Amino acid sequence: MFPANLGDYLSRDHLAHVVDEAVEHIDLSSFYKKLSTVGNPAYDPKMHVKLLFYGYATKTCSSRRIDDKVQSDVAFIYLAGMQKPDFRTISDFRKNNVCELRSAFVEIVKLCRALGMTKLV
Question: Number of helices and strands (H, E) in the chain?
């Protein structure tokens, strides 16, 4: 049985919360513009960005490893909103949004720097 908020399983200062908040505060409109209106609804780009950035931060970079973590790791499950995109979906999102991910990463680094969370050398 899970609590009402899966994030309650994570400490208040857990990196997953930082990634979650940071992605909530950056502009993701370029991802949403690319969504197709045909067929079944796609996974939310925000969820993909959270998974990928948390994966990069925890040295879990391959789509297959992220897929495994979404099945078993509380932080990944929390960031995925209990959805379970498979490795191919994760891989395709990354491949189809390389430029957008690069821009979003720069925005997150700037946000973290402004908050005093990191230093650029």
Answer: 7, 0
**Mean pLDDT value of segment 40-46:** 90
Q: Quick one: angle between helices 63-72 and 87-96, nearest 10?
A: 130
Going from the C-alpha of 100 to that of each of 12, 13, 82, the distances in angstroms are 29, 27, 24
Q: What region, left, alpha or beta, does residue 86 occupy, with left being phi > 0 and alpha being psi -120 to 50 degrees?
A: beta
Q: Decide: helix, strand or coil at residue 26.
A: coil
CA distance 58 to 94: 17
Q: At 16, give phi and psi (nearest 5°).
A: -60, -35
Cα–Cα distance measured from residue 114 to residue 107, given in angstroms and rounded to the nearest whole number: 10
Tokens of 68: 């495994």
Task: Give the type of residue at 119.
Answer: K
Note the pTM of the prediction, 2 decimals.
0.89
